[in-house]
Design a protein that fits this description.
By secondary structure, this protein is α+β, with helices and mostly antiparallel strands. The chain has four domains: about 50 residues, no CATH class; about 325 residues, Distorted Sandwich (Beta-galactosidase, Chain A, domain 5), CATH 2.70.98.40; about 375 residues, Glycosyltransferase (Alpha/alpha barrel), CATH 1.50.10.10; about 100 residues, Immunoglobulin-like, CATH 2.60.40. The chain contains 19 helices and 46 strands. The strands form twelve sheets. It has an eight-stranded antiparallel β-sheet with strand order 13-14-15-16-26-20-19-18. Strands 12-9-8-17-25-21-22 form a seven-stranded mixed β-sheet, with helices on one face. The protein has a five-stranded antiparallel β-barrel with strand order 42-45-44-43-46. Strand 43 and strand 44 form a beta hairpin. Helix 15 packs across helix 17. The protein starts with a helix and ends with a strand. The N terminus is likely disordered.
Length: about 850
């Protein structure tokens, strides 16, 4: 091999641009221009742009079940199905991604030789399990073009190539059905293919799905085992490992079903010979199991042991008639029961193990329920996108659902956690972190409230005796349930963070107000009081019952604040507002009186010490070593009011000051081509100076989760255009970077950005408080339709022709009081009709209030009509 070709072969495996002499190479499609005039002939010059390198895609797999990411090139990346790192604790799978699961179509036109097309853009010299395929097996090549449409949880791709006398469409998805935990945690993927003929001649065609045995991928002493199950309308092949440690995290099974009784198979192949030679020479697979050939005998001890590679293929063969369409489906499923805890010392299992013993059972269930699961998953996406919001807003919110799959885990007992972030090799920053949950968990509470309650109960169990709240937890529920004070199970010791107690209380309050689960509140009330008492007793430096910052001790963990800090105090005030309301519900008059007094004092200090005439300054410290004021303008300076907006807790900051602070924050910190940074200071020319010993520049950074939460806050407060611009900037930035499905902060797939779901609530001005639903839509249009979700279901809010309809799509809506503002301009009276009952209301200051006395239950298919 000459040096240039050698360098090119290396470059093909790297997802960056390489320049070699006059050649640039990348992992995507190539465009060639020819330069003439050279004495040696035309020299091809290759060009590319960043969009040709696929860096992210939708992750396929159930919540907490593991996943694999399908990108624009048709390759499956980031394999996390076998309890492996970074999501699990098992060894990382370090095999080439592009050969763990792949699809190939064999076709032969009349009078021509057969060809094989891999449904991937070739991204290296090792594709479809063949090394140097262009040299050793030129009959197989990747397709030239793909298109990719992602609407979580669905990926729709087309594969086209001038060599193929047909086009191929593929739909891939795992069921995602809000409020249905079992069917949203399935460890499997549907693949639906449609092949459209483009020729007037018949074509012999065989569609093949191939997969590699991942069972025991990190275990040397095992043997490969395969099998076939034939059913009336489908056939299922499976692979597992035998004669091995059945308690290993990688022990399990994988199955692939072909949904036709006419399907053929080849189990247990390894290389070109004989598998690909047989495929090339035959238009049907021979229905054989050659798995025994993938295990060899060690001469030393005459012991059978598995080879590194073992593949199996399922296929469907037809004669494609001229101008006809052929449809076929596969199901890929897995079952790896041994999910270990953080220290790999105890098996906690996966939630799906409650329902399935092996991958074949998963596949069977998915096939038997395919119509229903596909229908309900499509309905969710269709209902979500049946909206008058700009597409980029819907797409940005939809993209954050992906983190639900990449970063979540649910053990066999149903305990739920979501990782704060993930690096390539492992998760980072702990699990179920309270400070990040303050932003991201709004999505969980809206779509799967039982998972959110599980997380908060887990945190409650780990509270220290003095009331301290842990920042984050390890993936170790077994430990947590035997640990008395939380100390033994903490992921880290970032327990001095002063934002945690208020955030913990606010999360419990939000979950209670939204679900109206009074037992949850009652069980949590002592813990909430302990968290508040801890702050008053141990974190109040000057005796005013307000928290005092003493350096770096918040979610902004490289960001020192001192004394009264706007980020901390706004959340503390919101905590007091909510806790006073909860104390009233609990009949705890002493606590209600105390929290009401602290709230009044906190609001006064927030106004007097932190308002600088334009916004609420970063901090004001009147005593101690770091005495003084810091005029930093933190984007999150009023986050407590955002929390109140979502729960109907009223005003803790004057509306005009909120808007004034917001406008000045945008003027200082927002750039339409970059984003909204965390903090700015007056006098900054471009970016704020950073200390030499700074390990992370958090002031000048744009945190996606903060940007999206702030965009929703802007909209809640009536600054619709400003909020939409922030969303557009985030959307553009991630499109440009290529990481649209993988939002970054501390590692990838970051939890905080799930705050995007709050945008939907903000558009409607929605707050929920104990079955009291309040709407104050912020859209400038008179006629619109918006999707929203709440703990018991999903609905559309429709404004059209001077009438409002709240149409229940799934579940039910329990409503004892309905407040609607800003929907019937000019009207003096209004009437609401629910289930053939009518209620009248007068309009005061543009607000309609309907009191149903007891909870009105409106079920799926029914509507609330206001006119």
């Amino acid at each position: 091999m000459n040096h240039t070709n050698y360098l090119i072969s290396i470059c093909k495996g790297i997802a960056v641009t390489c320049v070699i002499l006059l050649f640039g190479c990348n992992t995507g499609n190539h465009n060639f221009n020819h330069i003439s005039g050279s004495s040696s002939g035309a020299v091809p010059v290759e060009t590319m742009d960043a969009t040709q390198v696929p860096l992210s895609g939708i992750s396929l797999g159930g919540i907490g079940a593991g996943s694999v990411e399908l990108r624009e090139d048709g390759v499956f990346y980031e394999w996390q199905i076998a309890n492996n790192l970074p999501r699990g604790t098992g060894e990382k799978i370090d095999w080439l991604d592009n050969s763990n699961l792949f699809f190939v179509v064999r076709f032969q036109e009349e009078g021509k030789e057969p060809r094989l097309k891999l449904l991937q853009i070739e991204n290296g010299v090792n594709v479809a399990s063949i090394l140097n395929h262009e040299y050793t097996y030129p009959w197989l090549s990747g397709v030239k073009n793909t298109t990719y449409k992602g609407q979580f949880p669905f990926v729709n791709m087309t594969f086209t190539d001038q060599d193929m006398p047909f086009d191929i469409e593929m739909e891939a998805f795992t069921p995602f059905i809000p409020h249905d935990v079992k069917n949203s945690t399935l460890p499997g993927i549907y693949f639906n293919f449609r092949i459209k003929a483009k020729t007037d001649k018949p074509v012999d065609l065989m569609l093949m799905a191939s997969y590699r045995n991942l069972s025991g991928y990190d275990i040397e002493n095992k043997i490969h085992k395969s099998g076939m199950e034939e059913n009336e309308n489908y056939k299922t092949s499976y692979m597992t490992s035998d004669q091995t440690d059945t308690t290993a995290s990688s022990f399990g099974s994988i199955a692939l079903s072909s949904l036709s009784k006419e399907s053929n198979y080849y189990l247990g192949w390894e290389s070109i010979h004989p598998y690909y030679e047989i495929v090339l020479r035959n238009d049907k697979l021979p229905n054989i199991d050659d798995t025994k050939g993938r295990n060899w005998i060690k001469s030393k001890d005459n012991k059978e042991i598995a080879m590194k590679r073992c593949f199996s293929t399922m296929a469907q063969s037809i004669k494609l008639s001229p101008n006809s369409t052929f449809e076929h489906s596969f199901v890929y499923a897995w079952n790896f029961p041994n999910l270990y805890n953080e220290n790999h010392s105890a098996i906690e299992g996966n939630y799906y193990n409650n329902f399935f013993k092996n991958a074949q059972e998963v596949a069977s269930y998915m096939i038997q329920n395919k119509t229903d699961l596909a229908k309900r998953s499509h309905e969710f996406v269709d209902n979500f996108y049946a909206s008058t919001l700009q597409p980029f807003i819907l797409n940005q919110i939809n993209s954050q659902l992906n983190t639900f799959i990449t970063s979540s885990y649910i053990n066999k007992n149903g305990d739920f956690g979501i990782l704060e972030g993930m690096n390539e090799d492992r998760s980072c920053c702990g699990s179920t972190t309270i400070d990040v949950s303050m932003y991201g968990s709004v999505m969980i509470a809206s779509l799967f409230p039982e998972l959110e309650l599980s997380t908060m109960k887990f945190h409650r169990s780990q509270q220290r005796p003095n009331g301290l709240i842990l920042h984050s937890l390890s993936k170790d529920y077994a430990c947590a349930k035997t640990c008395k004070d939380g100390a033994c199970c903490a992921k880290d010791e970032a327990t001095n963070r002063l934002d945690l107690p208020a955030q913990y209380v606010l999360l419990i309050l939000r979950d209670f107000f939204w679900t109206n689960d009074k037992k949850f509140l009652s069980d949590s009330w002592p813990s909430m009081k302990k968290a508040i008492d801890y702050v008053i007793r141990e974190r109040d430096r000057n005796g005013d019952q307000l928290p005092d910052m003493e350096g770096i001790m918040s979610s902004y963990d490289n960001f020192p604040m001192y004394g009264d800090a706007s980020y901390i105090l706004s959340q503390w005030n919101a905590c007091m507002a909510g806790a006073a309301r909860a104390a009233e519900i609990m009949g705890d008059k002493e606590a209600q009186t105390l929290y009401t007094k602290i709230l009044a004092k906190g609001k006064q200090v927030y106004e007097d010490k932190l308002w600088n005439g334009k916004y609420f300054r970063l901090y004001n410290n009147e005593t101690g070593e770091n005495k003084g004021k810091d005029e930093g303008c933190l984007t999150d300076q009023m986050i407590g009011q955002w929390a109140c907006d979502m729960c109907g807790l009223g005003r803790i900051i004057e509306p005009e000051k909120v808007k004034q602070a917001m406008r000045n924050t945008l003027e200082l910190s927002y750039k339409s081509d970059l984003g909204l940074r965390n903090c700015s200071w007056p006098g900054d020319k471009y970016w704020h100076d950073v200390a030499k010993d700074c390990w992370a520049d958090q002031g000048n950074t744009c945190w996606t989760g903060v940007e999206l939460a702030y965009a929703s806050f802007l909209i809640y407060e009536g600054l619709y255009d400003e909020g939409v611009r922030v969303i557009k900037t985030v959307d553009d930035r991630y499109r440009k970077a290529g990481f649209y499905w993988n939002h970054m902060e501390c590692g990838g797939h970051y939890f905080r950005a799930m705050s995007a779901w709050s945008i939907l609530n903000a558009m409607l001005g929605l707050s929920i408080n104990q079955e009291v639903f309040s709407f104050n839509p912020q859209l400038p249009d008179k006629d619109y339709i918006l999707f929203f979700a709440y703990p018991d279901g999903t609905a559309h809010f429709i404004s059209k022709g001077g009438q409002v309809e709240i149409k229940i799509l799934t579940g039910e809506l329990k409503c004892r009081e309905l407040n609607v503002t800003n929907v019937l301009p000019g009207a003096q009276t209004a009437q609401v009709a629910v289930n053939n009952q009518k209620f009248d209301s007068k309009i005061k200051d543009g607000k309609l209030t309907f009191d149903f006395s007891s909870a009105m239950i409106v079920r799926a298919g029914e509507s609330i009509i206001i006119k």
